[in-house]
Amino acid sequence: MGRKEKIQGNPWYKALAIVVLLAAAFGAGIFGARALLALPYRLTDSWQDTADFDYILTEYRDQLVSGVAASRRLEEVERDKDDSSAAGWTYADLEDLERQLKDLEQMMEPSNTWFRYSLRAADGEELATNRTGDRPLADQVKQARRFTFRAGEISYGEVYYRDGMYYVTESWDLAQDEAWASFPDGIEQLDPADEVPAAPAEKPQILVLEYGVPEEVTDAIQDGFYTARRQWGDQRANFDVNLTGALQLLALTLLALACLLWAAGHKSGVEGAHATWQEKIWLELYAAVMITAGVWLAACALALGHELYDLSYYHQYILRTDYQLYENLALAGLGAICACEVGLAALLLRTFAARLKTGSLARTTLLCRVATWTVRTVHDFLRFLPFTWKAVLGFLIYCVLSCMLAMAGYSDGAFMMMYCFLQLAALLFLGWWVYGYHLLRQGTKTIARGNLEYQIDTKRMPYDLKLQAEDLNNISAGLSSAVDEKMRSERFKAELITNVSHDLKTPLTSIINYVGLLKSTQQTDPKAQEYIEVLDRKSQRLKKLTEDLVEASKASTGVLAVTREKIGMAQLIDQALGEWTEKLNDRKLSLVTNLPEGETWVYADGRHLWRVIDNLLSNCAKYAMEGTRVYLDLARGKGQVMMSVKNISREPLNVPPERLMERFVRGDESRTTEGSGLGLSIARSLTELQGGTFELAVDGDLFKATVTLPQAN
Amino acid sequence: MYTILICDDDQDIVSALDIYLTSEGYQTIKAYNGVEALRAVEQHEVHLILMDIMMPELDGIQATAKLREGHNVPIILLTAKSEDTDKILGLNIGADDYITKPFNPLEVIARVKSQLRRYTALGGAEKGPGLLTAGPITMDDSAKVVTVDGEAINLTPIEYNILKLLLSHSGQVFSSAQIYEQVWNDPAYGSENTVAVHIRHLREKIEINPAEPRYLKVVWGLGYKIEKGAK
After folding, report:
1. CA-to-CA dists, residue A169 to A158, B4, B66, B222, angstroms
2. Residue numbers of the domain that contains A585
3. Does pLDDT of A201 surpass 80?
C-alpha cells in the first residue's frame, strides 16, 4: 500500500477534513450574512440615502411638528388663562407643555444638532429657523425637504400608530385633503371613530416646514445624525472586511471539500476503492433526501435572514445590548445553516465520488439501471430475432417511414429533406453490409486457398455477418491446429522409426557378428555345424526383414524424401534386367520384355522407382513357378506410362489381390520362403509417393502387377 | 602391424570386431564413446578408426570433426542410420568410409584393408600420361592394368573398355545405348541389357559391396557413371 493510499484511508485525515470543512462553512456563513447586512450601506453613495437617516430625520421633523402644535396649544391656553371656561386644563398640563417646548428648543439649538429647519407660513414668511448665517437652508443642507401641514392638528392627523408601526404621510398636500378623507391606496383603513379625533371647527393655518442635514457631520456635535453617519462609514468598512473573510473561508471550504472527495471511497487497510453502506443506497434516493434537507434549511435561512433584516431596520427601538445578542444569535444560526448545507453537499458529492471510484455509479443509479435494462432488452430482442424476421421487419419499417416522409414531403420541404436523409442512411446501411460481405468473401477465399492462418477482421462488421466470420475464423483455427497436429505426429513417427531401427539393428549386428565368429570355429559335432547354419540363415533374414520393415514404415508414412526428375523407363528396365537376368535364369525363369519404340520418359525418383521394379522382380524370383516365363511390358498413352510384370505363381494364389498388398501377407500361407511380406506393400507406397498408382490382379495362377506413372514430355 | 581403434557404445560389437580384426593380424584399441576415442588417439599411434555415430557423451560425427582438426588417420563410420543425408553428413565432416549396421564382418575387414592400403602404401599414385584414376581405381592404359587400392584386377576386354570410357569421363552419365555404341562400335538395337550385365560384373570386381557401389554408380533410369573424385 502506497503512501498516497495510506493518507486517503486514514480516518484522522478524514475527520480533520470534515472539521475544517464545517468550521470554514460556519465562518463563511457568518461573514457572508454580515456582508449582506452591510451591503445596503455599501451600495449607497451617501449616508443620507440610508433608512437610518430617513428615520432620524422624520423623528426630528415630527418633534418639530408636535412642537408647533404644542406652542399653539400654549398660546390658546395663555389666551384663555383668564377665561374660566378653560376647563380641563390644569397647571400641570401647562407646565408639561412649557417643558416640552423648552426641551425642543434645547434640542434644536444649532450647537446641539446637525438638523437644520425653516418653518414658514403659507405666504412664505419665515416663522422659525435654526439655520446659521444668512445663507438659505437649501445651501446649508445636502438635500432640503419640504413638509406641509396644518398647524392645529398636531401630530395625530398625519402620524398613525398601528401594530407597533408608525405610518407617516410625507409632503402633505392640500390638494390631497379630500382624497385623504377617502383613504387613498397605500394607507390602510382605520376606524376613524377610534383613533382619529374629530376635526376642529375652524380651518387651521397651513404651515410649510423645510428641513435637512448637511453632508459633512463631525464629532463636534454628537447627535443621532453623527451616530448614523459614523455607523454608515463603519458598515461600509465592515462590508469589505466581511466579504474578504467570507471569500477566504469559502476557498478554505472548497479546499477541504476537495480533500474530502480525494479521500472518498478509501479505507485504511483496504486496497483500492471501497464502498460503504451509503454507496449501497440508490443515488436518486440519497440525493432526494439531501436536497430536501437542503431546501428546508435554505427556507430556514431565508426566514432567519428576514428576521435579521427587520431587526437591523428597527434596531433603534431595541436596547443596544439586546440587539447585539439577537444579531449574534441570528448570525450564528445562519452560519450553522450554512455549515449544514455545505455538509449535505459534501455528503452527496462524497458518495458520488466514491461511486465513481468504485465504478458502481451506473449500478447504483436507478435511472441508469432502468435505461441500461431497456436498451439491453431491445438490443437482445433485435439481435436474437431470426435473420429473416429482422430483414422483413427492417424493410417494413423502412417502407412505412419512406411513404410517410414522401407524402409529408409534398407539402413540406423539411420532410422532403428528411426523406432524402432516410434514403442516404439506407444506402449507407446497404453499403456497410455489402462491404462486410465483401470482406467475408475475401477471407473465405483466402482460407479456402489453404492459408489457414488467415483471420477475417470482424471489427465494424454487421452483427449477423460478424457471427458468420467468427465461425469461419474458428473453423480455420481448428483446421490450422489439426494440420499442426498432423505435422507433429509425422515428425514423431519419423523419429520413432529412426529410433526403433537403431534399437533393432544394434543387437542384430552383434548376432550376425557372433554367428560369423561361431562359423569360423571348429565344431566337432556335425549337428552344431548344422545349427550354426540355421542361425546364420535366420539372422540374415532378420536383417533383411528389419531393413524392409524400416523402409515400409518410411514409405507408408511419407517420411521419405522424394526428388522427382525425368527418368527413362527403357533405360531403367534395362538396368533392372542387368541386375536380375542371371538370378532369374538361375531359377529357370526366362524374362520376356515388351518395350515400345524409343525411350519412354516419366517424372519420378529413380532410386524409388528402382526399388519398385527390384521388389517386383524379386517377387518373381521368389514365387514364380520354375520353367515359366516372366513378362515385363511397358506401354504409354493418354499421358500415362504403364509397366506391368506378369508371372505364373508356384503356389495357388487363394488370397485376394488387395490382401497381397497388405503388410506381412505373402502368397504362401506356410511362410516358408525367404520373403518378408513387405515387398508389395513397399512397392505400392513408393509408387504412390511418386504420384503413381499400383495395382495387382490375380487370375487363377496368373499374377499381374501394374505400375502407372504420369508421362513426362 | 597396424593399430585400429574400435569405438562403439555396444561392448559386444566392439568385442566381435576385435576378434575379427585380431584374427586378421591387426592390433586393436577399444573405446566406448567419443571422448575415450579422442583420448586413445592422443595416447597411441592409431592407423585406422572404426567409429559408431550414436554414442553417449560425444557422438561419432562430433568426434570425427574433432579428430580431423589434427589427424589424417582414416575413419570408417559404423552406424544404424541408413539415411542418405546421414551418409553425406558423415563423409563431408571428414570420414573416409561408411558402413551401415547390421554389417557383414567380412565387408568391414575388406574396407579396413582398402583404407589402410590407401593410407599407408599408396601415398599418392604418380599421375603419368595414359594413367586414369578415380579414387582408389587406377588404370594404366599402356600396360592395360587396372588396380584398386593397389591390387591388380582381372577384367575382360569389354569390361576394360567400359571402365576406360567411364574413367576418362568421370562424373558423366552414360546410358546403356551410349556405352554400347562406344564400346561395341555398333548402333544399339535393344540389346543394351548386355551392357547392364557387363557393368554388374565390373561392379562386382571393383566394389567391395556391389549392392551399394561406391565408385561405379548406377543412376537409375539414366545410366552409369564413375564418381568424380571419389575417395
Report:
1. 6, 149, 133, 143
2. 563-710
3. no
